[in-house]
Amino acid sequence: MKFFEDVELQKIPYRFSYRKITTEDYKGFYHCHQGMEFLYVLQGTGQIVVNRKVYLIQPGTFLYLQPYQLHHIQVDVHPDAPYERTIIALEPSIFEHYFAAFPQLNDYFQHLWKNELEDQVLQQMDNMSFINQLFQHHHTVFSSYQHDAKQQNFALLMLQVFQFLYAKGFGDPIENGLHPQRQLHYSEKIMNWLEGHYSEEISLDKLAEHMHISKYYVSRIFKQETGSTLMEYILARRIKQACLLLNTSNKGIEQISIEVGMNNFPYFCQAFKKLVGTTPMKYRKKLR
Fold first, then answer.
1. Predicted structure pTM score
2. Rg, C-alpha atoms of the chain
3. What is the pLDDT of residue 2?
4. How many CA atoms lie within 13 A of 18 on its CB side?
5. What's the CA dihedral at 130, 133, 135, 139 to 10 degrees?
6. Tens digits of per-residue pLDDT, 55-101?
7. What is the pLDDT of residue 135?
8. pLDDT tens digits, residue range 108-158?
9. What pLDDT is attached to residue 254?
10. Nearest 5°: phi and psi at 272?
């Protein structure tokens, strides 16, 4: 279920989830996000696989994920050992102009956004660290702002986060533009394409043509890189969007089913309950 927590960044270009707590089973699997994402862990232990490296997750772990970067998180969770974290995410193209007045910081922002990175994790940061106090401060004042002011306040938060990371030497700060741009894996390119097509009837032929590989190889490489089938991912992506619409709109549930590309309403309800753990109606009522 936790796969569906992401905000659709095309609709809201940022996310700030302060000290989010999970006390139930946390099943991890390979997925990606369309924007830049930062994760700061306050409680919980486990591991994350990203860029073919395995990192330990523990209190004080600070992790950065690039757009469409495939990753797999596993956390040991039960009521006496919750998973508590702060998550910030942004669509970088929307916030790029905020960095323009700070040339050095802008170069670093572009580097973390687009280039190959040697390391993407800081460990052993305590609850009194600068970054945790920064999150706490912005969480305190964030709710008092209107929409436009919220985005500006979030931009200020991100400028401070990037300044902090640059001072730490995080991600091997760029020198003389020598770092190569990150090349997406096939599965990441496929997920990128699906962002614009998941609500349609998916054509493997069109996807394969876009990828310049055979449709048989599309299915095989996706399963090989992510551990799940292409159709499992498409279903999860559609249900994720349905969760967002149930939370942010007053559209009828059957209308939402059609809008996310699932015209068979009984199957939509069945799949929703299987993946989310409750019916669409109960999910909506719980949120309101």
1. 0.69
2. 19
3. 37
4. 15
5. -160
6. 999 999 999 999 888 888 889 888 888 999 999 999 898 899 999 99
7. 93
8. 999 999 888 888 999 887 766 788 889 999 998 887 877 678 888 999 999
9. 96
10. -60, -50
- How many CA within 13 A on the CB side of residue 169? 0
Q: How far apart are CA 188 and CA 192, in angstroms?
A: 6
Q: Which residue has the tokens 């591991």?
A: 47
